[in-house]
Amino acid sequence: PWIFFVTPTYKRKDQLVDMTRLSQTLSHDKRIYWIVVEDREMPSMRIRWILERSGLPFAHITTLTPEGVHARGVEQRNSALQIIERRKLNGIVYFGDDDNAYDIRMFRELRKTTGVAVFGVGFAVGHYERCVVDEETGKVARFATNWVGGRMYAIDMAGFATHSSLIIEKQPRFRNDWGVGQLETRFIGQLVGNLTDLQPLMENCTRIYVWHVKTQGGRQDEVKNDKEWKRLSSLV
Ligand code: UGA
């Protein structure tokens, strides 16, 4: 099956670094449809070129995050969900942020997804979060994490995938007014009713094939010299 790899992206000093690396990871796999949603008004040429050079089929759209919203990538992922639903795309939907690191072994595993699948995520700071499988039943029993935060499905955005048929049926959306760290659990809550409905992947959640990389956010991320940035963008 196709993988619909949904990537929100926004202008910051690491953007070209991250998007170059990501495009070259994804281009190892020929059955990925890359849906890139830029957080701006008009599509940028710099991202367009990266997409074209990837050799992958892609959708390049934009959705601007409204003023005052702190959640990241929410509106952009919702726009991608709309495309998937409207076009009735058939395959696996994965929310792949632009700054993470993806082991290409992940793609083969993702293709086993029938409903909502979950798996472990490594954090670049040196810990990991994962689902734990009950050996007798083979079902997901709980999540092992440093921070539960009242989350039923305590997993990062990078740690789950959904079959598009379930998306088309349930039409789930992310919301900006959900609390910090609640995006994933509340989104998954629209798709399944119980932990045991989740399909464990990556050798029963025992392997880490994806790394969450945290970019700083805020002032440190801002592009300092716009003229230089434009010149740089034209050189890649
Ligand atoms: C964590 C999760 O891994 C994110 O998937 C989740 O959206 C976020 O928390 C949240 O709950 O808001 P974090 O490192 O804070 O991650 O988020 P980023 O990786 O910085 O951003 C997530 C995605 O949204 C990235 O692909 C980024 O390029 C994009 N983004 C971020 C925008 O499109 N616009 C922004 O203003 C910020």
TrEMBL record:
<keyword id="KW-0325">Glycoprotein</keyword>
<dbReference type="GO" id="GO:0000139">
    <property type="term" value="C:Golgi membrane"/>
</dbReference>
<dbReference type="GO" id="GO:0015018">
    <property type="term" value="F:galactosylgalactosylxylosylprotein 3-beta-glucuronosyltransferase activity"/>
</dbReference>
<keyword id="KW-0472">Membrane</keyword>
<keyword id="KW-0808">Transferase</keyword>
<protein>
    <recommendedName>
        <fullName>Galactosylgalactosylxylosylprotein 3-beta-glucuronosyltransferase</fullName>
    </recommendedName>
</protein>
<dbReference type="GO" id="GO:0050650">
    <property type="term" value="P:chondroitin sulfate proteoglycan biosynthetic process"/>
</dbReference>
<keyword id="KW-0735">Signal-anchor</keyword>
<dbReference type="GO" id="GO:0046872">
    <property type="term" value="F:metal ion binding"/>
</dbReference>
<keyword id="KW-0812">Transmembrane</keyword>
<feature type="active site" description="Proton donor/acceptor">
    <location>
        <position position="184"/>
    </location>
</feature>
<feature type="site" description="Interaction with galactose moiety of substrate glycoprotein">
    <location>
        <position position="129"/>
    </location>
</feature>
<feature type="glycosylation site" description="N-linked (GlcNAc...) asparagine">
    <location>
        <position position="204"/>
    </location>
</feature>
<feature type="binding site">
    <location>
        <position position="99"/>
    </location>
    <ligand>
        <name>Mn(2+)</name>
    </ligand>
</feature>
<keyword id="KW-0479">Metal-binding</keyword>
<dbReference type="GO" id="GO:0005975">
    <property type="term" value="P:carbohydrate metabolic process"/>
</dbReference>
<keyword id="KW-0464">Manganese</keyword>
<keyword id="KW-1133">Transmembrane helix</keyword>
<comment type="similarity">
    <text>Belongs to the glycosyltransferase 43 family.</text>
</comment>
